[in-house]
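Example 3.
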Amino acid sequence: MKKNLKVVAAIIENEYNEVLCALRSPQMTLPNMWEFPGGKVESGESLNDAIEREIMEELDCKIKALDVFHDNTHEYENVIVNLICIRCKIVEGLPTSNEHSELIWFRRENLESLRWAPADIPAVNKLISE
Ligand SMILES: Nc1nc2c([nH]c(=O)n2[C@H]2C[C@H](O)[C@@H](COP(=O)(O)OP(=O)(O)OP(=O)(O)O)O2)c(=O)[nH]1
């Protein structure tokens, strides 16, 4: 049976309506695909605590979770990912890439030009069409 993963990802927008996008490194699963930064929810952890912890670990900056933007379940070849995208705002610091190959701020209308992890595509489409 495939493993089910509960994953939170941060939708962080700046004052120019640009969204923070992260490129998964060649060493990660889903290598060289774009994603919203985040990671697996640990047992007993709330979604907000999980995204705030993951962003501190991955991007070295403090965020506040605002609300759930999109919730999608995607079946990959080996795993089923429940990806919960949460709108967040930066409270302290600037995002720094600890684990990703690249971090960029991208305008919503240009998001479709990136090669996204398949689970992210519905959230990306919602961002573009909003
Ligand atoms: N962080 C994040 N993960 C995503 C997104 N979309 C998507 O399919 N995933 C998948 C990739 C991973 O299989 C899973 C968990 O993310 P993770 O960031 O903890 O993955 P990881 O590389 O640490 O996983 P692993 O190598 O330890 O198995 O969710 C996304 O937008 N953000």
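The domain at 3-129 is CATH 3.90.79.10 (Nucleoside Triphosphate Pyrophosphohydrolase). The first helix runs from residue 47 to 59.
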